[in-house]
Amino acid sequence: MLVKRLFSSYTKALNRLHRAPSCSKNANSDCELVSTGETIASRRGFSSEPNHPPEDCQKPVTVSLYQIKKTIKGSLLGESVEGPTCIQTICPVCHIVPGVDGQGGTGANRKKIFVNKTTGNFTCSSCQYLGRWDHIEKFFLPTPIRSPKAVQELRKLRDAFLELKQDHLGTVHPIPGDAIVLDTLDRARDVVRRLHLENIVPETLISIKARWHEGRNELFVPLVDVEDRLIGYKKLYAAPDGEICECTVPETNASGLILLRCTTSGTGTKAKDHQSQTNAILVLSVLDLLALGSVKINATAVCLPHGLKTLPQQCLPGLERFQRLTLWFNYDTAGWDTARNFAKKLDERRCLFVRPTDQHPTPYKALQEGAIEPKTILAKAQPILHQSITTFRSLRQDVLSDLQNIDKVQGVKWKRYPTLNKLLKGHRKGELTVLTGPTGCGKTTFMSDYSLDLAQQGVSTLWGSFEIRNTRLAVTLLRQMVGRPLDENLTEFERWADAFEQLPIYFMTFHGQQPIKLVMEAIEHAQYVHDIQHVIIDNLQFMMGVLDESKHLDRYWKQDAIIASFRTFATRRNCHVTLVIHPRKERDTDELTTSSIFGGAKASQEADNVLIIQDKRLTSVRGKKYLQVAKNRYSGDLGIMPLDFDKASLSYAQRKKKPDGSDDGPGGMVTEPPDRTVRRAF
Hints:
Blueprint: H1 2-19, E1 32-35, E2 38-41, H2 65-73, E3 80-82, E4 86-90, E5 112-116, E6 122-124, E7 130-131, H3 133-136, H4 148-167, E8 180-181, H5 185-194, H6 203-207, E9 211-213, E10 218-224, E11 230-238, E12 244-249, E13 258-262, H7 270-278, E14 279-283, H8 286-293, E15 299-303, E16 324-327, H9 333-346, E17 351-353, H10 363-369, H11 374-379, E18 382-383, H12 392-404, H13 406-410, H14 418-424, E19 432-436, H15 443-455, E20 461-465, H16 470-482, H17 493-501, E21 505-507, H18 516-530, E22 534-538, H19 540-544, H20 555-573, E23 576-580, H21 602-606, E24 609-615, E25 625-632, E26 639-642
Parallel strand pairs: 14-15, 14-16, 16-17, 19-23, 19-24, 20-21, 20-22, 22-23
Antiparallel strand pairs: 1-2, 3-4, 4-5, 5-6, 6-7, 8-9, 9-10, 10-11, 11-12, 13-15, 17-18, 24-25, 25-26
Membrane topology: Peripheral membrane protein
Keywords: ATP-binding, Helicase, Hydrolase, Isomerase, Lipid-binding, Membrane, Mitochondrion, Mitochondrion inner membrane, Mitochondrion nucleoid, Nucleotide-binding, Transit peptide
Pfam families: AAA_25
């Protein structure tokens, strides 16, 4: 009954294909599949064009790798070998005749198919026939066939499949018969001389079974399939200008490769022989292949049939036995892009690439120039992996460097705020800091003093003040730098102004509401041109605004989108971003927390550091103002730093205590008293 249902569904599917209208007037439909005595047009039921859309009008078949493995394992054959790109198993059609016991042959006599793990297309190793998995899946039967009627029906289906397969066998393109085999060293040397193949060892032509046409002065190199059978060839000849030209026959969908086993010496050890059999170097031309054969390396050189144009999936079975593939293509953008695309077909985990630079030319050119040994270039090959995936091996040296330079990793230290050095350890690139505090508590004043300290140490800073004018901000920064009001000392303005101009501080000219896209373009431009390391946005609510065009948008969603943009910028550009955000309106007697930040939870979640200015002077007789470190992703240390405001310098810088008990000027190097820092864990 199982076979009956399979046969019925298979026949109905072919009938539907027969009734489907043709997409092309020139489409051939002369192939017939005889099933249950009826003639069915079947050209559209099986695919012989692997690189074209499946079955012209048909929808692509979705194939599950798990289902393929399950079907093969649960069948009577049950024998399969999984490789990097294909699953190798015995062909259930060629060797299994329904109702006949003791069949299938053994060893090399058994025909194999290779099922592509990505597309599901299968390739027959004996005839290079390419078909779809859903066409052969029905022949992997889970139980023996007992019913004579079911055996007869399945035999008809098998005969129809074999008939269609015979009509679509891969075409073999033999080398012209009048070309002579280069089987002697003298003949090979003569060909090398005629084609002016400098530095090419003649023995390599013998190894690849090349042939030479005496009349046309053409060199033929055979393309072989996974069973080492000839299926086509590459032709080399010298153009009138002396350049070696190369063409492939057939021009498309060639399923063969050219392989040349390279060894360091004639009699190598077993380890070296194994290395040459499991490591392959993929090149685009025969000249590059011959160049690799002329140097001492333990690998197999493989020439692809169509260069950068395409890599037919019929070629993949021939590369299954290699554990490592090094892609050595042209040193240009096209070669680099093609290497990455081919690596996806070949399984990126086993692929390495030679970086396409002028210092890494192709093998034949490197052999001609003689400046760099091909072995030296191969030693610099790097693995091709997903850009978002890495391993500890790749990070190992970075980890060691971080441990050896822990002070630099912690970031730039503040000179005005030593307590912050104790809590935050330093100001680091690539982080996002959120500063919040009640209205009028001095967020902008503190942030200008905070940023000035870093700018004086060489941290290039970009100020985006959407709340106050740049002129007023510059006055505050200049006064904090000088340490006293300049309006009472105008004669010193020029000197201090010249000193301030030397600081790496830049200002955005925006004010009020601005589109996030326009702001990000300005920031990215400044970061690229001026190498900005610290971006300050004061403040987020002013930048968002309340225009009519945005009144229908959810305000929380809009703020989250802006925060996400700054988070992405900080990470990708390795730049520190500080956002000043107003808190929600809460009772004055309550302390602010990370939940008090206006908007959703994204601001506190995305931030690496959350700084909160707590001002209790108006709610308590002995109330103080202090900066609370509420989140610290780097070291996890939390605590508070008292803020004592000096009106003359507009600074919160901690002052150094003199022996007589008086205060030193702001901005000096200080060590705060132990009782001035209160540690708190949240």
